Amino acid sequence: MKPRYLFEFCDQNWVPASARECLFEIMEACNSGFRSFNELVANKVLELAREEDFNRIVELGAGHAPITTQLATKEVGSELQLVPCDITPNEAVFRNLADRYPDLVLPVYESVDITLPQEELFRDSVLVLGGMMHHVPFDLRPVVLQSLSRSHSRIAIFEPLKRTLLSMLLATLSFFPAILLPMTFFRRPGKLRRMLWCWLIPIVPGMFVWDGIVSCLRQWTEKEWREEFAKLADSAHDLQIHTGFNSLLIVWSGREVPEASFIST
Fold first, then answer.
1. How many domains does the chain have?
2. pLDDT of 264 above 50
3. pLDDT digits (tens, 9 = 90+) for 171-217
4. What is the secondary structure of 61-125 as a DSSP string?
């Protein structure tokens, strides 16, 4: 089966909202508790912002805005602007962050389609995609890369998984933090919801393992990333690709170039 035909439960609107909420919470527990992925992303993004002297960090495809949340806790009182956005904005999460961190977190509540150039939003910013690029359909990824490269910005894509057997094996082990979710977030509201989907009707842990394996299959390899960037001509430069034990980081700088300079897809 080709990975383009596989789906992830967290992307499906037919999955009950309470079960999807558990899936996102498990992801948070894995990336902030059982491993320090979100913190590492936040630290790298801050480093990029300082290098470029940008005071705005835009989290694209933010979902529950884990990177913005991590950055906000680090940068309280700073002059940074943290801007979470998504094609289907989670208004409740965004408003909660904006209320907790006024003047620091400035969400975009309208839909932001990253396949389209966003001239004002993308200008003079660090654009971060944390663990979301593999959700983009294969045929739309070149369009997204072009769109991100069309303005004066620094772009960073972070993926917490790789397309390897080892990564898929580690994804299966996420069953255990999924089962422990009701205990991990016991002090948070939503205890009954977590107990329902993780213990009483324990289907969410299996759904999360499925999503993790599919996420691995949807990843591009370093070779595939370089092949796609080779097609971008003069629209992207200073490409850096770093592969870790179970993660991938792609960083590059965009350029403002005439529309005619871009390849057609």
1. 1
2. no
3. 999 999 999 999 999 999 999 999 999 999 999 999 999 999 999 99
4. T-TT-HHHHHHHHH-TTSS-EEEE--SS--HHHHHHHHHHSTTTB----S---TTS--HHHHTTS
Cβ neighbours for 125, distance < 8 A, ≥ 6 positions apart: 54, 56, 57, 58, 83, 153, 154
Q: Is the pLDDT of residue 96 over 80?
A: yes
User: Would you give the end-to-end CA distance of the chain in angstroms?
Assistant: 25
3-state helix, strand, coil in the chain (%, to 5): 50, 15, 35
Digit-coded pLDDT (tens) for 216-230: 999 999 999 999 999
Domain of 138 in residue numbering reads as 3-256
Pairing of strands 81-84, 154-159: unpaired
Whole-angstrom distance, CA of residue 251 vs CA of residue 192: 41
The residue count for the chain: 265
The answer to which of 22-36, 87-101, 231-245 has the lowest mean pLDDT is 231-245
258 close to 161: Cβ distance less than 8 angstroms? no
Quick: pLDDT tens for 107-123. Answer: 999 999 999 988 889 98
CATH code of residue 96: 3.40.50.150
Q: Does any domain span residue 264?
A: no
Q: Which residues of 40-52 are buried (b: 16+ CB within 10 A; e: fewer)?
A: bbbebbbebbeee
Q: Rounded to whole angstroms, how far apart are CA atoms 212 and 175?
A: 10
Is 216 within the bounds of a domain? yes
E strand or H helix at 146: helix 141-148
Q: What is the structure's pLDDT at 34?
A: 87
Residue 262, in any domain of the structure: no
**Mean pLDDT, all residues of the chain:** 92
32 found inside a domain: yes
